[in-house]
Structures are given as structure tokens and as C-alpha cells.
């Protein structure tokens, strides 16, 4: 009986081998492609054809909150159709499997075998990371034209390339799924987040620039505008990311909009007035103290009012302190302001605009005290040449030709200051000559200035203080440096004109055309010679290049 059973099983095994051979069981599918009943080679051929489109279809992925696609071919992904067909073929020869195949024809779905070039996959994922990685950004608040502006925070994210390789392989194998592959990323939250930005905007920033602040001192008041507040108020995060307001009182004190109001509400100290009596300096009147607002005092007055709303609530007192004059009768001699160091007079033809502009510049410069080691600036002292600053339109040189602009004629004062500087022996820091030579000035010893582009500056390296005294009338301006001479004498030695170039001629087409006579261009060097005890100590060359002054005729 037992022998008969064994014989029967053996017969079934042989029959199973004959029946199934190397065919793929019927009903077997790979990604929806039916390969049942095909031989292994036939199945491979069919899969190569039918899966080609799927193998090339872009893979949908998400990187954090961004959607994108990956090119499977570029990422080194492919279907191994040979291995897939081999696995689908029921080639297992054990008796139970072979006999079972006689009574079952349902192969069912088979997952495709995926091939991957990991180097290519990492390259593709690195490119994806460059596209979607982002640096964490804290939220912040700035101010522009008196309004609070918020910069929303950004959560940082970095694609995990190594872990994404596996996710990409899985997505490719299961691409029939509608859901994109969620690639792993590392997220970094900002320290100053959206909630803190909203709080700071609501509690600090918007109220701070809602309406101007009014401050009072000594029965006088001045206004701190919302624009000025915005220019000097910052909100910076503390160690926990909380935004903390800070007002730069020093810059607010000098703000161009509110500085005139502060000056009108306070009284600056007045320096002692000096004048020359022959070659020696005498004090005409002593310095007097004044009252001033400090940067700290201004900050302390403004800050508590910034979070209040309404004009009445944004009004308060500001403290002042006594300010001593920089120069007094007693300190004048101590600072070395004892004698005339140098002086130069520049002459000019009488013209109403020259009288106004030269006189105004001289007025603003007069009494300037330059302490040892300090650098004096023409532009900082005189300010922008505007009508509001007391200047009018006059003739200037622009693009190698005469034209009209505010402050014309001021270069005459600059030339006088330059020569006083030259003969005082102090160190020039910045200067520039006119583009072409003007005959009323000494060759190579003249200067021009332009607001925002060219200044006249010198450093007081005498070891003693210098004060600049000026006087002007309708035809001349005199600039004198008083202090203590460092050298007995400073001489000027002009060299010959070289590299001479002839001028051209051209008509003036401008509406406000200004005629000009021709003059050659040339190079010239002036030596500054330092003398002490009758001996030459050193020389310094001042080199100037003048362009030709073309003749311009106006119809």
C-alpha cells in the first residue's frame, strides 16, 4: 500500500515537470503586464517592451513642502527584466511545488526587480537638494519711510541624500501608486518665528511709528518724526529669539530732520572769539556754556513713548545738561592758539552770486577749531550747497565746461583754504584741482569741491590746535590759520608746464550755454619746501594735470 502511494506521487511529479516546463504560470502580471503562459525569454522580451514607458516616466517626489519630479534614467534607475522574468517563471523543482503547479494556474502579481546605479542616484538627488534646500531665516522687522516692515521667518530644510536613495528606489518600484515619494529632509526652525514677529509688530513696531513724538525742554518743544524714529530704531533678537527694541540716540540726535528742532530748543556753547593783532592772537570774547541734549537723554525720553498711542500720550520732557565750550580764554593759549601760522587771499571778479556763495561758505568755516590729530572737512563744515543752506545758483565747471548750479564760486573759498593748508605745512588728506586751469588761481595750488564726490580735507599734524579765521567781501576772501608754527617757513616752487595740449573749439548747444575762452591743457608740479632755522628740511611734490579748456561759443 505504501509503495503504491510513493509510485503515485512520483508519477504526479514527473507529470508536473512535463506540464509546467519553464513557462510563467498563467495569470502572472508585472506592473499590469500579463506574462502568464510565456516562456522566460518571451516574458523578458514583453517586459522590455511594455515597461519601457513606465521606466522613463518622471517620478513624482516631495522635498519638504515642495513638489518636483526625478528623471529615473538620470537617477540610474531601471527595470531588470531578465531577473524579473526569471523570478516569475516557476522553476522550483521540489516535489511539493511541482505537484502543486498541476492543480493551480494562478501566478498572481509579481514585483519588478529594480536596478539602481547609486552614484547616479546621489548625483540626481544632490541636484534636487541644491534646488530645494533652504537656509533657515529668522523673522525680522525693519522700518522704511516711517512704516514698519516685517520679514517673515523661513524654516530651513536639508535633503537627506543617503536616506533618499532608498526612498527613490521604492518609489520607482511602486510607481503605480498615486502618492509621490516623500523624500526625507532635516528641518531647522527659526529662533525668531512667526508668532514672535506678530507680537513685536503688534506691541512695538507699529505703535513706535504710529505718530510723531513731541519732546519739551526749557519751555520749548521739538518733534521727533516717525521717519526719524524708523531710521534709528532697531528690533534685535535676544538669546531666546525675542525681539528687543533699541534706539540709537547718538544718530537720532544728529538726524537731519530733527537736528534743527533740537538746536532751536537748546543753546549750544559758544567758543571764545579770536582775532589777529599783527602776527599774534588775542581773545576778543570768552567762551560761554550752553545747554544740550545728550544721546542717552534723548533715548531715555523717546523710548517710553514709543509704545503709546495718540499725540497726547506721545509727549514728554527731555533732560538737558550743561555743555562747556571747546575753546575758552584760558584754554586758547594751552591749545597753542597763539600766532598766525599761514594766510592766503583769493581774489575774484565781482558778481552777486559770488558775493553770496563765497561769503556764506566763509561764514560757515570761520572759527573752526581743529584739534591735534583731527581731520577737517570742507564739505562737513560748509554742508550741502543748497538754497536752504544759504547758497544760490552760480557758475561751476561740469564735464569740462561752464554751467550753472547751486553754490557756484565756492571753489574760490576752497582754493583759499587749500593754500592756507599748504603754507601751514599740515597734511593733505583729500583734494582735487579744477579740470581745466582758471587764470586767477596759482598754477597747481588750487582746489575745487563737489558735494558727495570731492572734498577738501586735511589732518592737523602740528601737535597743537588750529583755528581757521575767514573774512570775505565782494572781490576777495581771506583764510588764515592760527595756532603754533611747526616750521619757520613754508615755500612754494612751481615747475614748468609739461605735456602741453592745445584746446579745441565747439558750439554750446545747451539752453543756459556759458561761453568760455580757450586755454591749453598741461601738467605742472609744485614743490612744498619746509624750512627751519634757514635750512631746507624736506620737500613734497603736488602734481596737477589740467585738461585743455575748449573754446565754447553761444548763439
From TrEMBL:
Superkingdom of the source species: Bacteria
Record field: compositional bias (Basic and acidic residues): 494-513
InterPro entries per UniProt: Glycopeptide_resist_protein, Vancomycin_resist_VanW, YoaR-like_PG-bd
Pfam families, A to Z: PG_binding_4, VanW
Coiled-coil ranges from the UniProt annotation: none
Stretches for region Disordered: 494-520
Residues of the YoaR-like putative peptidoglycan binding domain: 70-171
Name of the protein: YoaR-like putative peptidoglycan binding domain-containing protein
Source organism phylogeny: Bacteria, Bacillati, Actinomycetota, Actinomycetes, Kitasatosporales
Amino acid at each position: 500500500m505504501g509503495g503504491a502511494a510513493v509510485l503515485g506521487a512520483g508519477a504526479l511529479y514527473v507529470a508536473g515537470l512535463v506540464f509546467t516546463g519553464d513557462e510563467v504560470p498563467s495569470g502572472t502580471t508585472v506592473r499590469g503586464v500579463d506574462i502568464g503562459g510565456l516562456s522566460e525569454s518571451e516574458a523578458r522580451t514583453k517586459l522590455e517592451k511594455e515597461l519601457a514607458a513606465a521606466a522613463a516616466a518622471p517620478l513624482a517626489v516631495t522635498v519638504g513642502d515642495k513638489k518636483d519630479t526625478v528623471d529615473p534614467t538620470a537617477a540610474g534607475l531601471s527595470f531588470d527584466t531578465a531577473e524579473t522574468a526569471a523570478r516569475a517563471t516557476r522553476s522550483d523543482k521540489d516535489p511539493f511545488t511541482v505537484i502543486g503547479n498541476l492543480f493551480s494556474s494562478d501566478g498572481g502579481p509579481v514585483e519588478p526587480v529594480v536596478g539602481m546605479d547609486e552614484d547616479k542616484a546621489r548625483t540626481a538627488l544632490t541636484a534636487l537638494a541644491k534646488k530645494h534646500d533652504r537656509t533657515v531665516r529668522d523673522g525680522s522687522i525693519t522700518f522704511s519711510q516711517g512704516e514698519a516692515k516685517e520679514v517673515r521667518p523661513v524654516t530651513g530644510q536639508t535633503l537627506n541624500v543617503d536616506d533618499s536613495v532608498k526612498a527613490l528606489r521604492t518609489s520607482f518600484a511602486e510607481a503605480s501608486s498615486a502618492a509621490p515619494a516623500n523624500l526625507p529632509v532635516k528641518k531647522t526652525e527659526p529662533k525668531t518665528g512667526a508668532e514672535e514677529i506678530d507680537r513685536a509688530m503688534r506691541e512695538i513696531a507699529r505703535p513706535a511709528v504710529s505718530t510723531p513724538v513731541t519732546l519739551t525742554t526749557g519751555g520749548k518743544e521739538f518733534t521727533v518724526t516717525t521717519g526719524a524714529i524708523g531710521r534709528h530704531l532697531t528690533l534685535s533678537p535676544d538669546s531666546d529669539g525675542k525681539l528687543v527694541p533699541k534706539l540709537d540716540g547718538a544718530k537720532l540726535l544728529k538726524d537731519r530732520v530733527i537736528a534743527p528742532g533740537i538746536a532751536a530748543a537748546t543753546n549750544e556753547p559758544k567758543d571764545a572769539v579770536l582775532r589777529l593783532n599783527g602776527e599774534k592772537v588775542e581773545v576778543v570774547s570768552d567762551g560761554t556754556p550752553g545747554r544740550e541734549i545728550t544721546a542717552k537723554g534723548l533715548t531715555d525720553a523717546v523710548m517710553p513713548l514709543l509704545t503709546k498711542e495718540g499725540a497726547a500720550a506721545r509727549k514728554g520732557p527731555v533732560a538737558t545738561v550743561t555743555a562747556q565750550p571747546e575753546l575758552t580764554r584760558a584754554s586758547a593759549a594751552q591749545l597753542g592758539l597763539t600766532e598766525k601760522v599761514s594766510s592766503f587771499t583769493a581774489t575774484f571778479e565781482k558778481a552777486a552770486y559770488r558775493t553770496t556763495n563765497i561769503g556764506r561758505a566763509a561764514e560757515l568755516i570761520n572759527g573752526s577749531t581743529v584739534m591735534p590729530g583731527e581731520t577737517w572737512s570742507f564739505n562737513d563744515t560748509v554742508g550741502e550747497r543748497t538754497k536752504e543752506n544759504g547758497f544760490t545758483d552760480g557758475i561751476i565747471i561740469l564735464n569740462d565746461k561752464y554751467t550753472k548750479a547751486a553754490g557756484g564760486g565756492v571753489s574760490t573759498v576752497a582754493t583759499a583754504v587749500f593754500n592756507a593748508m599748504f603754507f601751514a605745512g599740515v597734511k593733505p588728506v583729500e583734494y582735487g584741482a579744477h579740470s581745466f586751469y582758471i587764470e586767477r588761481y596759482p598754477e597747481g595750488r588750487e582746489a575745487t569741491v563737489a558735494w558727495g564726490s570731492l572734498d577738501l580735507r586735511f589732518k592737523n599734524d602740528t601737535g597743537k590746535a588750529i583755528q581757521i579765521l575767514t573774512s570775505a567781501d565782494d572781490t576777495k576772501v581771506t583764510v588764515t590759520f592760527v595756532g603754533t608754527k611747526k616750521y619757520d617757513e613754508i615755500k612754494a616752487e612751481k615747475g614748468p608746464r609739461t605735456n602741453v595740449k592745445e584746446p579745441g573749439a565747439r558750439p554750446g548747444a545747451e539752453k543756459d550755454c556759458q561761453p568760455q575762452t580757450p586755454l591749453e591743457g598741461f601738467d605742472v608740479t609744485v614743490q612744498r619746501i619746509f624750512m627751519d632755522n634757514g635750512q631746507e628740511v624736506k620737500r613734497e611734490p603736488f602734481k596737477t594735470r589740467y585738461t585743455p579748456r575748449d573754446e565754447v561759443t553761444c548763439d
